Amino acid sequence: MHTLSHPYSNVLSYSNHSRPSFYRVGATRISIKCGHGFESVYGFGSARSDWLSDCAILTSKVDSLKDSHVVNENGNGGVDHVAAVNGHTSAVSNLNLVPIENKKQIQPKPLTITDLSPAPIHGSQLRVAYQGVPGAYSEAAAGKAYPDSQVIPCDQFEVAFQAVELWIADRAVLPVENSLGGSIHRNYDLLLRHRLHIVGEVQLPVHHCLLALPDVRKEYLTRVISHPQALAQCEHTLTKLGLNVAREAVDDTAGAAEFVAANNLRDTAAIASARAAELYGLEVLEDGIQDDPNNVTRFVMLAREPVIPRTDRPFKTSIVFAHDKGTSVLFKVLSAFAFRNISLTKIESRPHRNRPIRVVDDESEGTAKHFEYMFYVDFEASMAQVKAQNALAEVQEFTSFLRVLGSYPMDMTPWNPSSRRGD
Ligand SMILES: O=C(O)C(=O)C[C@]1(C(=O)O)C=C[C@@H](O)C=C1
Q1: Atom of ligand 1 nearest to the CA of 256
Q2: Which residues are annotated as catalytic?
Q3: Is 229 in the pocket of ligand 1 (CB under 6 A)?
Q4: 333: closest CA among 408, 401, 407?
């Protein structure tokens, strides 16, 4: 059992590392494993020195690279545009990434794992990583979260995490759950594996369209492609439209639109935003095909540093915990919140990847094999509130591992679900 005087002191005292303005790696590759495996994830179950030294490892890697290769593309140590890095030459500065009249132009390529070694070049604008290609809902969410930012498309969620860890981006905006499709499990797993902090949330109404090449009719279609979440969100509507055709999953909605256009596929439609239709020269065959008009995806904003929790506006706190006595402990943990009238807004469980099975031997009855879980809980309180601190101190009594993923302002923007987002 670890006793901390302030349940959030680990996070609040996260050091301010000197920020490298430029570094160039040349042929050197930064390992994509930054020493942040699950074992070293800090939390209430880890010593403060452990997580501080882990942070130092990441910083020293970046700093040593900076010291030995400090130069920007111009060789003058000045400020360049991040979109010029890695061959991503398009200036992607806000939601209007690519003007509509430029739809035939080549779109910026998403970052890939192998792009993560060359030099990030730091400009004055906030650089925000998202998964997908221009026209993806995640791009719209990044623009809503950080309106004047420069958005950076990444080909995988993992790459967006690493872009922030490696200072290529300042923030990542990633989906965690959808009101129809449910949780995006991959991002829950990545939140645990990486050390970024949740610094905000943004809820985006998601309005899907069925897109096809000009003059293609529904009768010609043999296939609909999209992100698995988008396919799930439109499942019943597709059936109602008589589209009992093959449904195939791809990495993101806008990528599906791009694929249809690039390959001139007249038998395939994509589910994506109206903005994706404009960007890739497709037509909207059906508008608003999500099964529920109030379809909303919740995204989290991630940063290297936490925000200081406050009490002057609504805050949410996200935690993840595990225990070694089976799921029977769960109700005790949840009662720590119930007794203090703290509302939970989300609970999710994921396999405990380090210890997935707990074997219980009973001489008379045999051997039970229980699955072990990591529990993710969001609750409506700020870590600056004593009731939240006390709740976590109590949770700590019942858990073998506890980590605060972030305490951050709730998205309180007015409810306007019918608006077309991602357009
Ligand atoms: O493919 C996209 O456009 C995304 O931004 C991804 C994503 C998701 O992962 O859930 C985001 C929002 C929508 O719910 C559908 C797909």
Answers
A1: 1
A2: 297, 299
A3: yes
A4: 401
